[in-house]
Amino acid sequence: MTVGVVLLAAGGSSRLGQPKQLVRHQGQTLVLRAVEMALSVGHGPVAVVLGAHPDAIALELTGLPVHCVRNADWALGPGGSLKAGLSAVLATESSGGPTVDAVLVLLCDQLTVDASHLKSLVTTLKTTNAAVVASAYDGTLGVPALFSRAVFAELEALPPEQGARGVIARDPSRVETVPLPGGNQDVDTPEDLARLK
What we know:
By secondary structure, the protein is of the alpha/beta class.
């Protein structure tokens, strides 16, 4: 099974006052930490979607086997960034890469996510053949989430202001879940950053 990864790293971090992608945690930036996790899944192409601060973030990823994709309309919402990343992942097929069976959607700033959680999502998809495998936390289902090829068209049809959760919530009967304790802890505000440090 070939699993592509779309890492959403386009946000402007307006509440934080600095690019969250470049915040350092345990000696590395959040975007580098997320990319290393994505690469550890080890199944297919990795697309990093950039928007605000694209040059500084791309520089952080120099030399890594990822596709950096710029979404000029990143400020309209996550849907456009998700589509841009999915397009980049699927473009690898036409240049001789393997057929992508599923895509993993990932954020930079969910600090309780680790490589073993991402691998659990992949294992769950393999064993259940579900259309969607989502992370379960804080009474909700969200990303990181794995979407089978059967729902790629739904991801591509998302309006700019809507993220992956729109596809996850559409039909709960087709969604498998993997618990992610603390999955709602992210880095959005100076208070979050202070807690991180």
